[in-house]
Structures are given as C-alpha cells and as structure tokens.
Amino acid sequence: MKHYLEKISAVFSHVKSAELGLKSAEAVRRLEKYGKNKLDEPPRESLLKRFFSQMTDPMIIILLVAALLSAVLTVYESFQGGQYHFEFPTDTVIILVVVILNAILGVYQESKAEKAIEALQEMSAAKTRVLRDGQIISVRSEELVIGDVVLLEAGDAVPADCRIFESASLKIEEAALTGESVPVSKMIDILNGAKEDAVPLGDRKNMAYMGSVVVYGRGKAVVVATGMNTEMGKIADAISKAEEGLTPLQIKLSQISKVLTRAVLGICVFIFALSIGMKLLEGGETEWISFSLGIFMMAVSLAVAAIPEGLVAVVTIVLSIGVTRMSKKNAIIRKLTAVETLGCTQIICSDKTGTLTQNKMTVTEHYSDNENLLATCMALCNDASQNVDGTVIGEPTEAALLNYAISLKMSIADLLSGNPRVSEAPFDSSRKMMSTIHQTDKIIQYTKGAPDEILKHCNYIVRNGEKLPFTDELRQEVLTANKAMANKALRVIAAAYKEYDAVPASADPADLENDLVFIGLTGMIDPVRPEVKAAIDECNNAGICAVMITGDHKDTARAIAMELGILKNAEQAITGAQLDLISDEEFLARVEEFSVYARVQPEHKTRIVNAWRTRGYITAMTGDGVNDAPSIKNADIGIGMGITGTDVTKNVADMVLADDNFATIVSAVGEGRRIYDNIRRTLQFLLSTNLSEVITVLTATLMGFIMFQPVHLLFINLVTDALPAVALGMEHAEEGIMNRPPRCQKDGVFSGGLGVNIIYQGVLIAILTIAAYFIVLYLEIKEGNTDEHSRAYAMTAAFFTLSMCEIFHAFVMRSIKGSTFTLKKQNAVLWVTLAVSLVMTLSVIYIPFLAEVFSLVPLTSQELTIALILAISVIPVIEVVKIFQRARERKLAGK
C-alpha cells in the first residue's frame, strides 16, 4: 500500500486503528497472528554441522591423521609373526575420544556464548513509546504491530514503517535507506501532485521508515508495516550484520599460539629426525615401519599437547563469563574490546544529572511575581504527560515541572484542553530552551530553559501583574535569585512568555525566541546518589580522575562536585563559554587543571575527550542525548545511558548502564581489571605447563628413552590443563585491585615479569617430573626388577608427578604476585576442577582396565609419596619467588 498518497483517515481505516492507538488485547492478537517486528535472522547451523566444523582446526586434523596412522600401526603389528593376534587400538581410541570431546566442548562453548549474547541483547533491546488503551507505555520495538501509534522524539530509532500524522519540527535522518545524510523535514499532509509510481523513498516526507533516526523535533505516527514487510526488510538480504571481531588481546594470543605452533612443530621434526638418526647409529636390525610410526605418533602427540590451541577459546570463555557478570551488575557490554580497555581507564567524564545524581527531580523553590503563571508555563511548555491514573510519564525534569503544577491543584487535563498547542520549537541542546505556542482567546507562546539563555532573550518582566521593562536592576535581582538557588545545588529552570495576534508563520527558534517577557524561576533538587561519593573515593584510590560535564549552571555543578569530592577548589570549574575562549593548544596544556565543566554543549564534550586522549589518557565518556553520539564514539570507552539514553547513543556505545549510575562505571572498571588479571594468570598457567611438557619430552628423547606415551600427553592436555585454566579465569578480584594505578594500554601481555614467570615455572615443573622418573627408576632397579618393569613404574611416577604439579601449580597461580595463602575468598570452581583432575589421574593409575589402556602401573605408597612431595614443592618454590618479586617491586617503588 502507498500510504504516503493517502489521507491519514484512510490510513487509520486501512490498519484498523485510531489516533489513541490500539487496545492491548488487540495488539496481543495481532502480534500472535503476524509475528514479531524483526528482520529474519539467518538460519542457524545444525548441531551436526557445528560438530563437524570443529574438525577443521589444523591441530585436530593432525590428531585425526595420527589416529589413522595409529590404527594402521596396530593392524600391522597384529599380523606380525605370521599369524593374526588381536591388538586393541588403544592410542586410536583415546585420540578419537579426545577429538570427539574437544568437538563437543567446542559446540557447547559456542552455544553458551550465543546464549550469553542473546541474553545481553534481550537486556539492551530497543524500546518504543506507544499509545495503547489511550495510555503512553513503553514496549519492546519487536512487539510493535500494524496499527500501533508510536511517539517519536530526537534520538529515537524509528522502529517500523510508519505514516506520520503529527509533526513538531520533526526531522529524520534516512541515510541507512537512501544514502542521504542530510536529515529530512517531515510533514503530515498527502504528497500533492505525486504520481503513484514516481515517489522515491527519500521524498516520502509523510513517512518514517525502520532503520532511520529522529534527529530533531517530535511527532506521532501509525505503524503500517513491520518486520520483513518494511522497506528495510525488502533489502534485508543486502544488509550484512557485522560480526563481533576478536579483541586486541585475543588477536595477540592467537598470534602467539601460531608462533608457538611453528616452534613446537619444528621441535617435533627435530625429535623425529634425531630419533631416526640415533637408531641408525645404534645399528642392528630394526622394524623401521613400526619404529617410524611410533616416533611419528610421539612427535604429533607432543605437538598437540604442547601447543596451547585452546588458549584463545579459554580467553573467550573468561571474557564471556566476565561480560555476563557485568550485565548482572547493570553494566551491559556491547563490545568485548571494552572489557580490556576498562582495566586501563584513567579518566571518566560523566554527566551529572541521573549519573552522579538520582534523576528524581522535585521543585523545592521558586522565584516569581506570579506563581500560577509560572506553573502554567512550566506545565504547557512541556513534553511530559499525565495518565488517567495520575502518574506522570516523561523526562525527569519535565515530569518534575508537571508535578509542580499538579501540586498547586492545577488540572493538567483542563490546561491542555483550554490551551491547545498549535506550534512549537522543540528543545535543542545548543539553545538550551524550548518554546510552545498555544491557542486560547489569544495566541500565547511559553518558553522555558536555562536561566542564562532565557535572560538573553527577555526585554520585559512580569511584576504585580504588569509587563515592565527589564531594567538592569531587575535583571540583577533575577541573577541573584538564580545564584542563590544554584548555590544550594538546585537545578534552575527559567520561564518566559510572548503574545501574538495570530499564530506565527514560522516556527524557527530565531523568529520566536526574542523580545520575551520573563516570568520567573523554579529550583529543583536532584539528590546525589548515595553510593557515588564512595565510588569517587574509589576512583581516587585507583588512580582514576573523575570529570563532571553538565549543562547545568556553574554554581550548581560546583556545589555538587564539592560534595562528591570531584572538585578540590573553585578554579577547577569552567563553563563552556570560557572553554570557547581557550585555544586548542592552550587547552591541551591545561586540560588536567579542570575537573568540572558547566553549561557545555555537545561539541565541548568531543573537545574535552579528544584533549585527554591526545595527552595519552584512556578516557571513558558518558552520554544520553542524540548529540552526545560523537563524543561517545571518540572516547576509548563510550558509555550510553540505559534509562535516559536515546537509541542513537546506545547504538554507538561500548557499554550501556542499565541503571544510569556512576558507581556502576567504577564497578565495571574493577571488573575489567579482574578479568584482565584472570586472563594473565590463565595465560601464565597454560604456557608454563605446556613448556614443561616440551622440556620433559625433549630431554627424555635426547637421553634416548621415552618418558611418556602419546595417550599420557593427551590426557594431561585435556584434564589437568584445560579444566583448571577455565577455573582460574573465574578467580575473584584480588584485594586492593582498585588501590593500584591503571595499567598502561601499551603494556604487552607478557609485561610485568609474566614472560619470566612462564619460563622459570615451566623449567621447574620439568625438573620435578624428570626427577620423579629417575628416583623411582633407581628404587625399582635397586629392588632387582627388570629394566622394562622399572621403566614402567618410572613412567607412571613421572606421569603422576606432572599431573599433580599442574594441579598444585593451578592452586598457587590464584595470585600472580601475591601469596595464595593470604587470599580471603575461595574459588569453589577451581577446587572442584582440581578434585576432578586428581580423581581422574588416580583412576587411570589404579583402576586396572584404565591402567592397561593408558599403559600405567599402580605405584607403591613410597613411590606415590615421592611423587606428591616433588609435585607439592611447586607451591613453596613459587611462593618464595613471589616474595622476592614483591620485595623488588617495593624497592623500585621506593626509588
């Protein structure tokens, strides 16, 4: 249907609706019948396809090749000696079990990540204000149906295709559909003179389309198409949704894994060649096929065991868990990169209203010669509304002003019916005011806004019911009253009016907002959030500077900043007008001097953010209005407001605050630090344990014996590496995590001695494992046992020691530099994984059929004790090293 060519009455008739919207029951019925207002999503891959996609990893392919070669070797050996004797393909079965388990875990992790993303999307789902049952309510945009009447205002994303029937300077940007970045001024009339098939989408000025954004004004429209039936739906196949890329850390770790892969593969080739060479030097008869396949299996297994192929996956899991934790604390992460950057945050530039304060406005004072006229102006020049049950809906400041009029026993319904709005100049952050024109027995304009801006446009004042010239003496009296309210941390709004003989032909603010008559002031209190003062103190301890940016009066901003501890002296506060007088070069040099910015405009926010970033500081910026989008986009971490924020700001933000609370930002910074710490300890644990495996096997090969069978390395890699690594990623934040300065974003993942820790801990575990092998070998030979028997026990002791080393290593890695024994909170998940690892390790040694599968033997109590003593020595050695590391840091800090 070409609704842009129809009268609005015909449109309402066609969609079976009216200006007061649908009944709720009818909306539910239509939603069930026609489906949700969303574009079709690409079909999901089946579980089977996901499972087999896990097999495409290069390392898994190598494992499968190894399994095939192992099977060939088993069959070959079964026919040795001239007759067939069955050989169970132990290595083949275990490798295939590992591959299948890896694939199942991969699918599970993918599914879990998808569900986490879906949950976050559910929390941050776009909402739309609609009229249902004659009341304004907020519903999810996907629940809109044809016939719904939607209310649009600056910052809203148009949720569906709509026919506009009410417009107050409504302008919509339709670049997503038309490519035209200049906003289109909307109208409500039929497109006169338009031919039925000759109206391009960009010229349909009485329509609003899904995917476009309201940038100015307000309006009402009726939904005429939803979901795939919208213009956006028609081109949905051409729209590709950008996938969430890897974070810088994940990319870096992926690169590290590739480098390690090449290095270890090189070592494996070396081991293979060396073994063949040594066998040739020994001389004598050799079953070369069997020997070569065995050595090849060892080399391949070493590669798979030693390469941390699960490193990026573990980090992704840690990030996902962290993001889910943050969402439960009202910080909804929209981009994973924000999690890393949060830990580096040095500057937090925050709005005042609603973020540092409660955004629960109440008018407590007024200054006016005529309070009834003041309240009338504030109630009519207002976009908040009162429902039939008496509740007020709207932006907090607007709602407070409407409640002020209600408190004076004024009937809002009577005011609206007796003073219908006929034109308006909507609020604009650059003008800091709005004007509405009303039809009564005369035409009257009411204007409200920031006192200093309103006063610039007033030439008269109401006194004793008379319109008097606004003399300098009277103007000073108003300024004094304004300052008195601002000094009490009140938000001050001024009111004025202007009369006409007829409705003005132009609704341009420049034509309306001049020669005004000043009415008075209202002062409203927005109490400071009780938790913010502690959050500011926490910022100071954490080396983070909090900066207040507000459109409020300088005195109001200063009073609140002093109360919160943001401001130390009055000279640290500056207005937007004063900022305009400072050159970019001077501001760049002086930006650290200012911590409060008052009476700012959106472009000032961008300038402030860029100055801090140019100085090398990692900067976070909050915003809620459509004009805040550039500054949020420019910041290292853009933070949108979940309650008061517009769709535009939320869409460009890296993080959205579900509660609009400054304390939530600080909490998220702490969580970001915790996550990064956990990733580092996981990285150290995985790489050091993998290094120990490489050193152990390489040493044994150079000495001419085999310390581990392939299945041993695969077991260790699957059980004692992966499980504790994930658990370490869930470690609690260390005490004092917010009492240290932010880490430098340029620091590499191996900075702070992490690389050294990986090397010495890998060498330590390798030495202990080799020591266990030779000690038990010596004891067995001393008992008069055969060499083959003795080496079987030595191999089992080495296997048990290495497994236990990794378990105890995971325990001591709960803190990278602090003592594990001083941690006050326990990691229950880690304890469970360590217990599972211990039980599984003992099972493959002491349960006969498993021991036979893994070619292990039951250790004696003496041998078990020796292995445990060697393994547990990991803890005191690493703890002693930590003591020296902490002492060195204190010494360096003292310098």
Unreliable stretches: 237-244
Q: What would the average pLDDT be, to the nearest integer?
A: 86
Question: Can you count the helices?
Answer: 32
Tell me the distance between the termini: 77 Å
SSE blueprint and pairings:
Elements: H1 8-15, H2 24-34, H3 47-53, H4 58-78, H5 90-123, E1 127-132, E2 135-140, E3 149-153, E4 161-173, H6 175-178, E5 184-185, E6 207-208, E7 213-225, H7 231-234, H8 248-282, H9 288-306, H10 311-328, E8 331-333, H11 337-342, E9 347-351, E10 362-368, H12 371-380, E11 385-386, E12 392-393, H13 396-407, H14 412-418, E13 421-428, E14 433-439, E15 443-449, H15 451-456, E16 458-463, E17 466-469, H16 472-487, E18 490-500, H17 509-512, E19 516-525, H18 532-541, E20 545-549, H19 554-564, E21 573-575, H20 576-580, H21 584-590, E22 596-598, H22 602-614, E23 619-623, H23 629-634, E24 637-641, H24 647-652, E25 655-657, H25 662-702, H26 710-728, H27 754-782, H28 787-812, H29 828-846, H30 848-853, H31 861-872, H32 874-894
Parallel strand pairs: 9-20, 9-23, 16-19, 20-22, 21-22, 23-24, 24-25
Antiparallel strand pairs: 1-2, 1-3, 3-7, 4-5, 4-6, 4-7, 8-25, 10-19, 11-12, 13-14, 14-15, 15-18, 16-17, 18-19
Helix pairs in contact: 3-5, 4-5, 4-9, 5-10, 5-26, 8-9, 8-10, 8-25, 9-25, 9-26, 10-25, 12-13, 16-19, 18-25, 25-26, 25-27, 26-28, 26-29, 27-28, 27-31, 28-29, 28-31, 28-32
